[in-house]
Design goal:
The chain is α+β, with helices and mostly antiparallel strands and about 625 residues long. It has 21 helices and 22 strands.
Length: about 625
């Protein structure tokens, strides 16, 4: 270990790992500090990656040169594309993962990353000189200096775990909390608060009766997250669905008087979209049942995760309630569910680069910013690591815009709007959903990442080859004319009206029920075209979406381009809004507090009106 690094990353969860990998791959000498080298990349909650909007984020991280997609593919035990019944803007990939192999793959990939060192220790303080973070102090007495620091403390800052009436310090089962950092930053003027999250019991799969549950299989033709040549999961493990009932709810209510959530001991704000089971039956008291997703923890282990049964109720209540669920009558517990309460810092104290406004060269990523979920954390990690490395060379930060990536939406929401509850990404949060699809993340992000030196030559070459294949296929469809006789079998099979004369193949594809795969299967000239261009299923899917939704894509892009000009109008650091009497008093107050980097960011702050923006435009010489 060196005495000085370009970048120090504190914490080796999803955010910390991506931050460390990004900084090191950009060429920065990087040190990853973790309390326990044995749990690098641990899945603290459910053993799955992706899902609604989260799957798009994993694809974006991969396209930008990150590791999460590769790790997920190598440890996948099931793949599903969610929301297939909806439009392509909503399609979201998800994997069920082997928890142990996931963490193992993360560690092995990090160990094989050049410029990256490791140190097992607890950081107890940051070294701040003249308003700049220049290193860390550890519990073992080490003083390690650096040009920038990324803090990804997860749920460990003053973490407090709750099981019934019992409380004990820690950020995760079996691991201690981090103390000192919050207090130091609050003294420096940072605003901190408390949040909470929960986890369900882990149980012995041998004690479950799966015969009375609904089986949930993976896709027949599974895909992968990564745009690299990662393995496809073939023999998939099924998940299962069970249901609570009124008897379960009554047993749970019996324990409410001993629940930290209801007796006032648990003060932090919990996730709205992933509530505890006691929260669900209280908030939705009219519901007779709730779904439980029974998820295997891996290929070989018997451990099972009961998704949907997060709880901090006493152990005896957890056991009795779960045994009242059909299929769990004889269930054996590995460990009970628990809640964890922890410190976070209001993300409006950050710049879009994820550097703090109060302290230079100090970056935050992950749950410390008020988010929830592996994917949201990893997305912040890769951007914080990238910008921490670039800050050491005095380069401009890389900031993804809202029309470029869900990552851009996530960070912009946090920095401009803040959050009072654990922030979770949804497709509805993005106004440019048809542009930000899961199939085109490489087209959106790999060129930019390659330009800054993060995405390697292999990724760029792969994208170019894919683009060429798809373009040649599209040109072939534009040139090829299909006769009524050639198309008859296809159109009859999908219940579409027959052709009366020859029509270009690309026009045929725009019909609602006609898909590229059945065109290839039933129209020989199109089959030959696909074979000659060696298109993959992913290529064909991307091509079909681009053709079918071309009008919507162009319309959305036009709107994005119109608003884009505001993104290029930067606002100087420490701009004196109070000196501008033409601004409304509310705008002066909020702009001074938030210190937005661009006029676009200013426009998204509640209370800043169109007239305020016009005043700023004039003041900035535009």
């Amino acid at each position: 270990m060196h005495d000085t690094y370009d970048v120090i990353v504190v914490g080796a969860g999803h955010a910390g790992n991506e931050a460390a990998a990004a900084a090191a791959n950009l060429g920065a000498s990087t040190l990853l500090i973790t309390m326990n080298m044995g749990v690098i990349g641990q899945m603290s909650c459910n053993p799955a990656m992706g899902g609604i909007a989260k799957g798009q984020i994993v694809r974006e991280i991969d396209a930008f040169g990150g590791y999460s997609g590769i790790v997920s593919d190598h440890s996948a035990i099931q793949f599903r594309m969610l929301n297939r019944s909806k439009g392509p803007a909503m399609w979201s990939p998800r994997t069920q993962n082997d928890r142990m192999r996931f963490a193992e793959k993360w560690r092995l990939m990090l160990e094989q990353t050049k410029n990256l060192d490791f140190w097992q220790d607890s950081v107890i303080a940051l070294i701040i000189e003249n308003g700049t973070c220049v290193g860390v102090k550890t519990q073992l007495g080490a003083v390690i200096r650096s040009r920038s620091v990324v803090v990804t403390a997860g749920t460990f800052l003053n973490g407090l775990m709750h099981v019934g009436e019992k409380q004990f310090g820690g950020g995760r089962a079996g691991e201690k909390a981090i103390r000192g950092i919050t207090e130091q930053l609050v003294e420096l003027g940072f605003s901190a608060d408390r949040m909470k999250t929960g986890t369900p019991p882990r149980i012995d799969g041998r004690s479950i009766n799966y015969n009375v549950m609904e089986e949930q299989k993976g896709d027949e033709s599974p895909q992968r997250f990564s745009y690299t040549n990662t393995p496809l999961v073939r023999n998939q493990r099924s998940c299962h669905i069970a249901y609570t009932n009124t008897a379960v709810h009554e047993i749970l209510r019996e324990g409410f008087d001993r629940s930290p959530m209801f007796n006032g001991r648990l003060q932090g704000l919990g996730p709205r979209y992933c509530p505890s089971i006691e929260d669900k039956i209280e908030r939705f008291s009219d519901k007779d049942k709730h779904q439980l997703f029974v998820e295997p923890e891996g290929w070989d282990t018997i451990e099972v995760y009961v998704n949907g049964f997060s709880t901090s109720l006493p152990e005896d209540v957890q056991v009795r309630a779960l045994r009242a669920v059909p299929g769990f009558e004889n269930v054996k517990f590995f460990r009970p569910g628990y809640a964890v309460e922890y410190d976070f810092f209001h993300p409006t104290q950050l710049r879009h680069s994820l550097e703090t406004k109060a302290v230079n060269n100090l970056f935050f990523a992950g749950q410390i910013n008020g988010t929830t979920g592996y994917e949201e954390a990893a997305a912040q990690g890769i951007m914080a690591g990238t910008n921490a490395a670039r800050s050491t060379w005095n380069k401009e930060p890389v900031i993804l815009k809202r029309n470029q990536a869900y990552i851009g939406v996530l960070i912009d929401d946090l920095v401009t709007k803040g959050t009072k509850e654990p922030y979770r990404m949804f497709t509805s949060r993005a106004e440019y959903r048809i542009l930000l699809r899961q199939d085109n993340a490489d087209q959106r992000l790999t060129p930019q990442s390659h330009e800054i030196g993060l995405a390697d030559e292999d990724r760029m070459r792969s994208l170019e080859l894919k683009t060429n294949r798809v373009q040649k296929m599209r040109q072939g469809l534009e040139r090829l004319s299909v006769s009524p006789e050639e198309s008859e079998k296809l159109l009859v099979s999908v219940g579409s009206s027959p052709l009366r004369q020859k029509q270009k193949a690309i026009s045929l594809l725009t019909r609602p029920k006609v898909g590229i795969h059945n065109m290839i299967d039933l129209i020989p000239p199109i089959h030959s075209l696909a074979v000659s261009n060696k298109l993959t299923d992913a290529d064909l899917e991307s091509l079909e979406v681009e053709i079918k939704y071309q009008g919507y894509i162009e319309k959305e892009q036009a709107v994005a381009d119109k608003l884009q000009r505001l993104e290029y109008i930067g606002i100087p650091k420490n701009f004196n809004y109070h000196a501008m009497e033409s601004l409304s008093s509310e705008a002066r107050e909020k702009l001074s507090k938030e210190q937005p980097d661009t006029l676009a960011a200013a426009s998204r702050i509640s209370g800043v009106s169109a007239s305020d923006l016009a005043v700023l435009l004039v003041r900035l010489g535009r």
